[in-house]
Amino acid sequence: MAKPSVLTPQADDFPRWYQDVVSKADLADNGPVRGTMVILPYGYSLWERMQAEVDARIKAVGAQNCYFPLFIPEGHLKREAEHVEGFSPELAVVTHAGGKELEEPVVVRPTSETVIGEYMAKRIQSYRDLPLRWNVWGNVVRWELRPRLFLRTSEFLWQEGHTAHVSQEDARQYAERVLHEVYADFMVEVLAMPVLKGRKTSRERFPGAINTLACEAMMRDGKALQMGTSHELGQNFARAFDIQYLDAAGQQQHCWTTSWGVSTRMVGGLIMCHGDDRGLVVPPRLASIQVVVVLVKDGPEVRAAAGDLMTGLQAGGVRAELDDAVETSFGRRVVDWELKGVPVRLEIGPRDVEAGTVSLVRRDTGSRQPVPLASAVVSAADMLDTVQVDMLTAATARRDENLHDVDTIEDAVGAAAEGFGRMSWSALRADDGETRLRTQGITVRCLQRPDGSLPFDEDEPDLVAIVSRAY
């Protein structure tokens, strides 16, 4: 088994461990402007897989992809005052272009509600045009004071969906559908990451929204990461941008709108939820390389056997790669593959060929077993399914072990030192408990009903609050 000395141990310094993984697994590097990042090929391959899986789910709930400009007139943001107030510290503003001062400053989009709202107003005439469901894949800029690769960067990649509906109920149902069928389904089924779904408090919700729903995940250091959000915008943006429709009775009505998004932050979540002291651990359904066939030593028989393995794996739809770089030591190559978190390795050398076996190694547990060479392709494919299930089971167990029911603010602070606290929302609201927690760097991540379902509003009786420190 490879030694973990190439990385700072998680227990010694989790943030340093994270930075080590991003660097040594060749995921990303800092860009030339502070807070920007260069996503390297292996890191981008993970994002491409995420993008493809999320995009398929977005299309399945009826949204269509389109594109909107990177630049937004400053006046557009000012038309929705609460929105501007929420984003103003993070805005990047262009005041000069083409060698002269602009008549109106241009904002590099932090999000696109305002510009998309203008074009929704142009496209919507009648109730027959609704619901209108658009999605944009692109980049946005939010000037971060404390950037960290993938987690918080001044420029990042994401998708943002925007919809318009005939009623508040229709908009609410769609915002919830996106949370469940797009985001949570992807995170659980592909990322093998258990998430808590809930409603943000009024203090934590998206600027300009009347409701924000979120998926919150626990990282291996016990902190929370907001993995995705879905917002009900009410009629705030519809009124600001005059998004109206003619109803069946011939009356003009303002639409009810939503917006929702996930970003390259999910790559950071993948690292911190599953990674260990040997590097990344990538779930098989996400992995751009699911199986790597590693030559221990060279030889014609070894190459022939490895070639047969590759042919069989690829014919079976497995994303496989051959590592025949025997000029580099076998140990060094194993360390590199473990850093990248490839789910399964098939290691083959002259002795294996002679014995008619190959070594099958799981990245998640490190277990190694000899399997017959003749059935190695089937064994590897079956192991991918096993690893996917086991990774979700392990991550769920880690979360549940560090999710503590508490009764007081003091107990909530103690729970947040190692994981999540779960306490009565009414008890927390008494004596301004949310403010008291924030002074200690702890926030209410979301509100849930006791059975874990989404509340209609934060004044429902018997709600529970999930509290923790967060990225």
The gist of it:
With 471 residues, the protein is α+β, with helices and mostly antiparallel strands. The chain is 36% helix and 27% strand.
Structural commentary:
The protein has 471 residues and is of the alpha+beta class. It folds into three domains: 4-274, 2-Layer Sandwich (BirA Bifunctional Protein, domain 2), CATH 3.30.930.10; 291-384, Rossmann fold; 403-468, Translation Initiation Factor IF3 (2-Layer Sandwich). The chain has helices at residues 14-24, 41-60, 74-78, 81-87, 113-123, 168-189, 236-240, 265-274, 300-315, 330-340, 350-355, 376-401, 409-416, 425-429, 433-438; strands at residues 28-30, 37-39, 64-66, 71-73, 92-97, 100-108, 132-141, 155-165, 196-199, 211-218, 224-234, 244-246, 252-254, 256-263, 291-295, 320-323, 344-348, 357-362, 368-372, 403-405, 420-424, 443-448, 464-468. It has a seven-stranded mixed beta sheet with strand order 3-7-8-14-11-10-9, with helices on both faces. Strands 16-15-17-18-19 form a five-stranded mixed beta sheet, sandwiched between helices. β10 and β11 form a beta hairpin. The longest helix is centred in the C-terminal third of the chain and has 26 residues, at 376-401.
List its traits.
7-stranded mixed beta sheet, 3 domains, 5-stranded mixed beta sheet, Translation Initiation Factor IF3, alpha+beta, Rossmann fold, 471 residues, BirA Bifunctional Protein, domain 2
